[in-house]
Structure formats: structure tokens, C-alpha cells
């Protein structure tokens, strides 16, 4: 037998599923399937097959559908009927209730079942329904691997989405907290500004002079002064501009707002950075008496989290050379370095880069020319890492709240690199508090100075 096609059709001729087992054009197949309902309507005999000039239709009604086999005329009708019986058992076993929705949902499963029963070329397999069911339920290693990969991608995407949501919410909370803090500061400053209208003319003029000298280089610490009662006016109405005049009504309105919000006057806090002495500038090597002078500068930038773990560490360094003696300045510098830790070196454009990479020697491309007398950075290096071994020192802060409302903060500094001496090390404690609170236990040990 040779089965050209196996199909499942509705009573009105609508094709639900059709599977071809030989090479046949789409136009011919559609013509054969379209002609079947017309032939069935004109057939008066009680047979389950219809012969035409070219093909044979073997069919069987299943509820409101027709199960159809299109074979050639030389096919064995007994084998075709046996195949039809297996298909009639297979279709309900796969689809369950024979509705259009269930058939559409199980289309590919029906095609796989047809392929288990009929091979390529249209020949029937010697197989029963239980074997077909077993073959359809067999596991595929490639399919399981694909499903595992898809599941992993979905879990990673879900975890990343949750992390992004947490980060966005944290940023929103931080932004809202900053806006609230800025709003409270603005209200407090406005309240203090309107309240200055109660001061005497002498106090108002002195306040104006202090504001006019805002550009002074030496900052002064703010000391709040008690407000004085307004002196009775001895003169008549005065013409011209008057500082602080007409603010009594606005001040009373802001007094009411401050009373509702339970606000207090907040004195301006001077920045801790303004009280830090300027870093001593490295002496220029131009005035040196040595024929050739070298200077090394390194800057370490570290970002730590609350637990003290390193999130980002960046080291940038430069080697400066200055030649004071023209005869001795035409020289070479033999260096000892290692790039095993991921250090990236960059030489000056006038320095022989190939010689440095091959032999670790710094020399100008033109050996006849000396190094310039001014300080020139002939070599730079940089490294980005998260290794704590590169930390020169570490800071740990332990706040402890006591029962009397005070907070005791212990700060520990750990020196990690003992091979170098740390000089002029200072750390800044940004503490926003009232002036009447005591600042105790500011100690200096091991050459470390505290500023705060």
C-alpha cells in the first residue's frame, strides 16, 4: 500500500490536520481534499472507500469529523482498513474530546502519531497503539537540555529584575530623603531670615556688613547671638530703603508653620573640608643640586561598602624625571617592575616604548638629547582591582548607642602595607551636630592626625 496523505476533516470539508507521506504539490492536495465532500454527497452505497480515476479515498466517521486516507488505486484495501482502524483509535487517544479547540491544540502531536504509524513513502508500520504511545512519550536529551537552558535564562532574568527593582526603590528612597532634608533646611533658613526683622537697626546693619564681606578668604565659625528687643523709635517716618522692614507679618506666619512642624533653629555648619590644611605641595626638583632627580607620585582611590569590603580600588602613579646637568641628563633609567598584577604602563611619546617593554629601561628615542630640566612625567601606570592587599590602610567605624541618649563611635585604622612609611595622614569625620555637644577622645597615634 502507498498512502499519499492522512487527514482529519470536518463534516463540511474543513481541513483540521493533513500529513503527506509522498511528494505531492499543494494545489493537487487541496484539489483532492476539496473533492472528497462532493464525492461523499453523491455516494449512495454503504462503503468506507471511494474510487476515482487516479486515487482512492478510505474514510471513517469519528463523531462530527471524518478520518481520511488518500491512497493509490493499487493499494491493498485490507491493509488500508487496518491502518484506518489504528488511526481511529490514535486520534481520540491523543486529542481526547474531539472539538476544534482540542484538535488545534494537539496538531503537532497528531502529526507525530501519524509519522509513527506511516513511514516516508506511505508504507504502514507493524506497530500497535501501545507502542505508538510509548514512542511519543520517550524523552529527548536535546529537548531537556533546551528546556533547562530556557529555565536558567528565565531565572536569571527574574533575579536581575528583582535586583533592579531593589536598586530603583533604594534610589527613590534616598532621593525622597534628600528632598525632605533640603525642604526642612529651606524652611529653617527662611524662618531665621524673616526673624531677623525684629533686630535693632544696629544689628541689621552689622548683619548686612558681614554678608558684604562674604568673599573673605578666612572663614569664620558662626556663633548664634541672642535676639534683642526692638528699641522704640524716637524719630518720625524715615524715607528711603530700610533693611528688615515690613517682615513682621511674614515672620508670624512662619512662626506658626514652625510651631506646627516642631522645627528648631539650625545653625549653619561649617564644612569639615574647609578646616583641613592644604596638602603640602611636593618640592619642585628644579632647584635640586643633583644631576638628575626622580620623583614618584601615586594616588589611591578606594570605595568600600558598609561591611568594609572593597568595591573598587584604583591606583594611578607617575614617574617624574628632571635633568639639571646637560652632560648627565643624557642617560638611561633601569627600572624594576612587574606587570603580573595587571598593572598597565604608559610611556611618554618621546620615550622608547619598545626598549622599556623589552628590558625595563627608560630612555629617550634620541639618545643624544638629555632629559629636560623641568619635571616631566615619563612613565605612568594604573591598576583597577578589588584585592584588599593593595589597601595602604583601612578604617572601621563602630557606633554604639548608650542608654542616656549618647552615641559612642569607635574608629579603628589598620595599616596593611608595612614596607612603606605613611606620613602626613589625615582623616575627616563629617559630623553634623550642635555646637554645645562635646567632642571628646580625638587622639593622635602613630603619626595619624584627626581633623573633625
Could you walk me through the main structural features you see in this protein, from its secondary elements to its overall organization?
It holds the Pfam family Adap_comp_sub. This is Coatomer subunit delta. Residues 205-217 have a biased composition (Low complexity). One of its GO terms (biological process) is Golgi localization. The protein has 10 helices and 15 strands. It is α+β, with helices and mostly antiparallel strands and 452 residues long. The protein has 4 domains: 3-136, Beta-Lactamase (2-Layer Sandwich), CATH 3.30.450.60; 147-199 and 247-268, no CATH class; 288-389, Mu homology domain, subdomain B (Immunoglobulin-like, Sandwich); 392-451, no CATH class. Strand 3 and strand 4 form a beta hairpin. The model is unreliable at 191-225, 227-250, 266-280 and 440-452 (pLDDT under 50).
Amino acid at each position: 500500500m502507498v498512502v499519499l496523505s492522512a487527514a482529519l476533516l470536518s463534516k463540511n470539508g474543513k481541513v483540521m490536520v493533513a500529513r503527506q507521506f509522498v511528494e505531492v504539490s499543494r494545489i493537487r492536495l487541496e484539489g483532492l481534499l476539496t473533492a472528497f465532500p462532493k464525492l461523499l454527497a453523491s455516494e449512495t452505497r454503504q462503503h468506507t472507500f471511494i474510487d476515482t480515476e487516479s486515487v482512492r479515498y478510505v474514510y471513517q466517521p469519528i463523531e462530527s469529523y471524518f478520518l481520511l486516507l488518500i491512497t493509490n488505486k493499487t493499494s491493498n484495501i485490507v491493509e488500508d482498513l487496518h491502518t484506518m482502524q489504528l488511526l481511529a483509535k490514535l486520534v481520540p487517544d491523543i486529542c481526547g474530546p474531539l472539538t476544534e479547540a482540542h484538535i488545534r491544540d494537539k496538531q503537532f502531536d497528531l502529526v507525530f502519531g501519524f509519522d509513527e504509524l506511516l513511514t516516508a513513502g506511505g508504507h504502514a508500520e507493524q506497530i500497535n497503539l501501545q507502542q505508538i504511545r510509548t514512542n511519543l512519550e520517550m524523552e529527548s536529551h536535546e529537548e531537556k537540555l533546551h528546556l533547562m537552558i530556557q529555565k536558567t535564562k528565565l531565572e536569571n532574568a527574574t533575579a536581575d529584575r528583582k535586583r533592579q527593582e531593589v536598586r530603583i526603590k533604594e534610589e527613590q528612597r534616598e532621593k525622597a530623603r534628600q528632598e525632605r532634608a533640603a525642604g526642612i533646611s529651606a524652611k529653617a533658613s527662611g524662618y531665621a531670615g524673616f526673624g531677623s526683622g525684629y533686630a535693632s537697626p544696629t544689628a541689621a546693619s552689622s548683619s548686612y556688613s558681614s554678608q558684604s564681606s562674604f568673599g573673605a578668604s578666612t572663614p569664620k565659625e558662626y556663633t548664634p547671638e541672642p535676639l534683642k528687643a526692638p528699641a522704640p523709635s524716637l524719630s518720625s517716618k524715615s524715607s528711603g530703603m530700610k533693611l528688615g522692614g515690613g517682615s513682621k507679618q511674614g515672620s508670624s506666619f512662619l512662626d506658626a508653620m514652625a510651631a506646627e512642624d516642631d522645627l528648631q533653629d539650625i545653625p549653619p555648619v561649617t564644612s569639615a573640608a574647609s578646616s583641613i590644611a592644604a596638602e603640602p605641595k611636593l618640592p619642585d626638583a628644579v632647584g635640586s643640586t643633583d644631576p638628575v632627580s626622580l620623583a614618584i607620585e601615586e594616588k589611591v582611590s578606594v570605595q568600600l561598602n558598609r561591611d568594609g569590603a572593597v568595591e573598587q580600588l584604583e591606583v594611578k602613579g607617575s614617574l617624574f624625571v628632571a635633568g639639571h646637568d646637560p652632560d648627565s641628563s643624557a642617560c638611561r633609567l633601569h627600572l624594576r617592575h612587574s606587570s603580573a598584577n595587571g598593572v598597565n604602563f604608559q610611556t611618554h611619546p618621546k620615550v622608547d616604548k619598545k626598549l622599556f617593554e623589552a628590558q625595563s629601561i627608560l630612555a629617550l628615542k634620541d639618545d643624544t638629547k638629555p632629559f629636560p630640566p623641568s619635571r616631566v612625567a615619563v612613565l605612568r601606570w594604573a591598576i583597577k582591582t578589588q584585592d584588599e592587599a593593595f589597601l595602604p590602610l583601612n578604617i572601621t567605624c563602630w557606633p554604639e548607642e548608650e542608654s542616656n541618649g549618647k552615641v559612642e563611635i569607635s574608629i579603628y585604622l589598620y595599616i596593611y602595607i608595612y614596607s612603606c612609611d605613611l606620613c602626613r595622614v589625615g582623616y575627616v569625620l563629617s559630623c553634623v551636630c550642635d555646637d554645645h555637644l562635646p567632642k571628646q577622645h580625638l587622639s593622635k597615634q602613630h603619626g595619624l592626625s584627626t581633623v573633625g
